[in-house]
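Dear colleague,

Thank you for sharing your sequence with our group. We've completed the structure prediction you requested, and as agreed, I am returning the results in plain text so they can be pasted directly into your records. Please verify that the sequence below matches your submission; if there's any discrepancy, let me know and we will rerun it promptly.
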Amino acid sequence: MARPQIRHLALFATDPEKLAKFYHDVFGMDIIHTGGTSWFVSDGHLTLALLQHRLEGAGAHGLNHFGFSVDDRGAIVERLASTGVREPRPRELNVPYAELRGVDPEGNWFDLSQHGYETAEYRPEPSGKK
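Please find the predicted C-alpha coordinates below.
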Protein backbone atom coordinates (compact mmCIF):
# COMPACT_ATOMS: atom_id res chain seq x y z
CA MET A 1 0.00 0.00 0.00
CA ALA A 2 1.35 3.43 -0.94
CA ARG A 3 1.99 5.91 1.86
CA PRO A 4 -0.74 8.58 2.11
CA GLN A 5 0.52 12.03 1.15
CA ILE A 6 -0.75 15.43 2.25
CA ARG A 7 -1.92 17.29 -0.84
CA HIS A 8 -4.30 19.83 0.66
CA LEU A 9 -4.26 22.32 3.53
CA ALA A 10 -7.00 24.81 4.37
CA LEU A 11 -6.71 28.16 6.11
CA PHE A 12 -9.42 30.49 7.31
CA ALA A 13 -8.85 33.99 5.95
CA THR A 14 -10.62 37.29 6.39
CA ASP A 15 -9.75 38.15 2.76
CA PRO A 16 -9.23 34.92 0.75
CA GLU A 17 -8.82 36.76 -2.56
CA LYS A 18 -6.04 38.99 -1.22
CA LEU A 19 -4.31 35.99 0.33
CA ALA A 20 -4.55 33.99 -2.92
CA LYS A 21 -2.95 36.87 -4.82
CA PHE A 22 -0.21 37.08 -2.15
CA TYR A 23 0.71 33.39 -2.61
CA HIS A 24 0.52 33.81 -6.38
CA ASP A 25 2.73 36.93 -6.48
CA VAL A 26 5.33 35.83 -3.93
CA PHE A 27 5.59 32.06 -4.48
CA GLY A 28 4.28 31.71 -8.04
CA MET A 29 1.42 29.48 -6.92
CA ASP A 30 -1.34 29.04 -9.47
CA ILE A 31 -4.84 30.21 -8.64
CA ILE A 32 -6.67 27.04 -9.64
CA HIS A 33 -10.22 27.70 -8.49
CA THR A 34 -12.47 30.26 -6.90
CA GLY A 35 -15.73 29.12 -5.39
CA GLY A 36 -17.91 31.80 -3.91
CA THR A 37 -15.82 33.24 -1.12
CA SER A 38 -13.10 30.56 -1.20
CA TRP A 39 -9.94 30.62 -3.30
CA PHE A 40 -7.61 27.71 -4.06
CA VAL A 41 -3.91 27.98 -4.97
CA SER A 42 -1.47 25.22 -5.86
CA ASP A 43 2.22 24.66 -6.40
CA GLY A 44 1.38 21.69 -8.63
CA HIS A 45 1.71 19.27 -5.74
CA LEU A 46 -0.15 20.72 -2.78
CA THR A 47 -3.37 22.72 -2.86
CA LEU A 48 -3.94 25.46 -0.31
CA ALA A 49 -7.61 26.26 0.25
CA LEU A 50 -8.23 29.78 1.50
CA LEU A 51 -11.65 29.76 3.13
CA GLN A 52 -13.68 32.77 4.16
CA HIS A 53 -13.66 33.14 7.94
CA ARG A 54 -17.03 34.46 8.96
CA LEU A 55 -15.92 35.40 12.48
CA GLU A 56 -18.75 33.32 13.95
CA GLY A 57 -18.38 30.48 16.41
CA ALA A 58 -15.08 28.76 16.98
CA GLY A 59 -12.52 28.66 14.21
CA ALA A 60 -10.50 25.57 13.46
CA HIS A 61 -7.40 25.00 15.59
CA GLY A 62 -4.27 23.03 14.93
CA LEU A 63 -2.28 24.45 12.02
CA ASN A 64 0.89 26.05 13.35
CA HIS A 65 2.81 26.65 10.12
CA PHE A 66 3.75 25.13 6.78
CA GLY A 67 6.96 25.25 4.80
CA PHE A 68 8.12 26.17 1.30
CA SER A 69 11.16 24.63 -0.33
CA VAL A 70 12.72 27.40 -2.46
CA ASP A 71 15.58 27.59 -4.95
CA ASP A 72 16.50 31.21 -4.22
CA ARG A 73 15.72 32.38 -0.69
CA GLY A 74 16.90 35.92 -1.46
CA ALA A 75 14.48 36.34 -4.36
CA ILE A 76 11.56 35.20 -2.19
CA VAL A 77 12.58 37.59 0.60
CA GLU A 78 12.60 40.44 -1.95
CA ARG A 79 9.13 39.48 -3.17
CA LEU A 80 7.88 39.34 0.41
CA ALA A 81 9.28 42.83 1.07
CA SER A 82 7.37 44.17 -1.93
CA THR A 83 4.08 43.05 -0.32
CA GLY A 84 4.66 44.94 2.91
CA VAL A 85 4.70 41.92 5.23
CA ARG A 86 7.32 41.65 7.95
CA GLU A 87 10.73 40.47 6.81
CA PRO A 88 11.28 36.76 7.47
CA ARG A 89 13.45 36.05 10.48
CA PRO A 90 16.09 33.37 10.95
CA ARG A 91 14.86 30.23 12.67
CA GLU A 92 16.36 29.17 15.97
CA LEU A 93 19.73 27.46 15.90
CA ASN A 94 18.22 24.10 16.83
CA VAL A 95 15.70 24.08 13.93
CA PRO A 96 17.34 21.94 11.24
CA TYR A 97 14.89 22.03 8.34
CA ALA A 98 14.24 25.69 7.56
CA GLU A 99 16.35 28.79 7.61
CA LEU A 100 13.68 31.48 7.84
CA ARG A 101 10.19 31.98 9.32
CA GLY A 102 7.81 34.34 7.52
CA VAL A 103 4.25 35.48 7.91
CA ASP A 104 1.52 36.12 5.36
CA PRO A 105 -0.77 39.17 5.44
CA GLU A 106 -3.21 37.34 7.74
CA GLY A 107 -0.60 36.23 10.27
CA ASN A 108 -0.16 32.61 9.14
CA TRP A 109 3.37 31.40 9.67
CA PHE A 110 5.45 29.67 7.02
CA ASP A 111 9.04 28.48 6.82
CA LEU A 112 11.48 28.96 3.95
CA SER A 113 14.11 26.33 3.25
CA GLN A 114 16.70 26.54 0.51
CA HIS A 115 18.50 23.33 1.50
CA GLY A 116 15.26 21.32 1.56
CA TYR A 117 13.25 19.39 4.11
CA GLU A 118 14.84 16.02 3.44
CA THR A 119 18.12 16.79 5.26
CA ALA A 120 18.72 18.33 8.66
CA GLU A 121 21.08 21.28 8.40
CA TYR A 122 21.78 23.22 11.57
CA ARG A 123 22.87 26.84 11.53
CA PRO A 124 26.30 27.40 13.09
CA GLU A 125 26.59 29.19 16.43
CA PRO A 126 27.50 32.88 16.00
CA SER A 127 31.24 33.44 16.27
CA GLY A 128 32.41 34.45 19.72
CA LYS A 129 29.48 32.75 21.47
CA LYS A 130 30.19 29.84 23.76
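Summary note from our side: The chain has a mean pLDDT of 87.

Kind regards,
the structure core
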